[in-house]
Design a protein that fits this description.
By secondary structure, the chain is an alpha/beta fold. 34% of the residues lie in helices and 16% in strands. A hairpin with an 8-residue loop joins strand 10 and strand 11. It starts with 13 loop residues before the first strand and ends with a helix. Bound molecules: adenosine monophosphate.
């Protein structure tokens, strides 16, 4: 059983909270996008409102197990104070004297932010002794870092063994609720839309979703490996030669269990891989040797839109085209807008991390989707049907 922070009261408790403050920083060390910080505020506020003291720990970037000012969480501490109005005590190390001193000096109403846990190589090694040193700083443990839950690290996994009182934060609970509902209890028809550059990395997602959903719509670069598997020419489009057989197997399996996999029937192709390229819409049978497949075509957009509007549950992961180029972002836009329309009609819509989240944010549609997952790798592993170590560790 996993217990939510809303099932307890943290009055007078020191609450060790694993958050995901792995935010992009500018070259002069300013927070460029505060989404991940803002998303953990409900959990932090609940602890403060109860009369507890949140002691926040996070990683930032990939320092090699040593102090590196480039990856310091100090700018995040400043941001929490200057922009979000929190009373923040920053501990220049996440364990030892510096951390203990910061925790000791904190009063109710304060927030302690510990320095980057990855400044110690023991963090990614899931080291028990290091985890115990972190654990000593708090009376109870909360994990709100869904985006890191697929990794068994000291602050997400080993640490949990030192606590009887352990909880999932609000963000973690929301992720488990919506992703879990989609996978285990969907209102049908249940539609999955998968795109992105490649099949590899999403093979287990496709396999798992084939068992769970009613239809799968394919888009993005991965469509071309499926086209090749069907014996069509794909010109210079992205291809995973070593996944053609697998694509065939997936199509056969889908046919056997009667879950249609839709491969786009038309494409926007370009004469070069750039936003300035000349482009045209062609049917799947008419891709020339020099064409780059860049986006799904007009007929496919219309068909996918109709299928989305007929669904009661939709999960989407991966763009339909090279959406970083404005010229080839239309297919992805149509999917995002269709999800928003479907949500308004009462469907549960979930965007499962990664580049599709950027697309939704770019179009300002986040509030019109039931749930936009914060965890790229974590949500993919969840959709593969795997148990996430950071979630398993919270079980009591
Ligand atoms: P992923 O991380 O697997 O979800 O892939 C996202 C990437 O897929 C984005 O950078 C897109 O530009 C890329 N992508 C989508 N469609 C295509 C395509 N037709 N050809 C090449 N790359 C693509």
């Amino acid at each position: 059983m996993i217990v939510s922070i809303f099932e307890t009261n943290f009055n007078s408790k020191k609450v060790l909270v694993r958050v995901d403050f792995n935010v992009p920083l500018s070259s002069d060390g300013k927070v460029e996008d505060d989404t991940r910080i803002v998303e953990s505020l409900p959990t932090i506020d609940k602890i403060i409102d109860d009369g507890g003291i949140p002691i926040l720990m996070s990683h930032l970037g990939r320092p090699k197990g040593n102090f590196d000012p480039k990856y310091s969480l100090k700018p995040v501490a400043d941001y929490l104070h200057n922009h979000l109005g929190y009373s923040v005590i920053f501990a220049p190390d996440c364990i030892g004297e510096a951390a203990e001193k910061a925790v000791k000096s904190a009063k109710p109403g304060d927030v302690v932010l510990l320095e980057n846990v990855r400044f110690h190589k023991e963090e990614t090694e899931n080291d028990t002794i290091f985890a115990e040193k972190l654990a000593l700083l708090g009376d109870c443990y909360v994990n709100d870092a869904f985006g890191s839950a697929h990794r068994a690290h000291a602050s997400t996994y080993a640490i949990a063994q030192f606590f009887h009182d352990k909880y999932a934060g609000k963000l973690m609970m929301d992720e488990l609720h919506y992703l879990g509902k989609v996978l285990n209890n969907p209102r049908r028809p249940f539609l999955a839309i998968l795109g992105g550059a490649k099949i590899s990395g999403k093979i287990d997602v496709i396999k798992n979703l084939l068992q769970k959903c009613d239809q799968i719509l394919i888009g993005g670069g991965m469509a071309f490996t499926f086209l090749k598997a069907k014996g069509l020419d794909i010109g210079k489009s992205i291809l995973e030669e070593d996944k053609i057989e697998l694509a065939k197997e997936l199509l056969n399996e889908a046919e056997k269990i009667n879950v249609p996999i839709y491969i786009p029937e038309d494409y926007i192709v370009a004469d070069e891989f750039s936003n300035e390229a000349n482009s045209r819409c062609v049917s799947a049978n008419d891709i020339n040797a020099n064409d780059y497949g860049m986006d799904i075509g007009y007929k496919t957009r219309e068909l996918y839109k109709q299928l989305i509007l007929q669904a009661n549950t939709v999960i989407w992961n991966g763009p339909m085209g090279v959406f970083e180029f404005e010229k080839f972002s239309e297919g992805t836009k149509v999917i995002a807008l269709s999800l928003a329309d479907a949500t308004q009609k009462g469907a549960i819509t979930v965007v499962g991390g990664g580049d599709s989240v950027s697309a939704v944010n770019k179009l300002n549609l986040k509030r019109q989707i039931t749930h936009v997952s914060t965890g790229g790798g974590a949500s993919l592993e969840f959709l593969e049907g795997k148990t996430l170590p950071g979630v398993a560790a919270l079980e009591i």
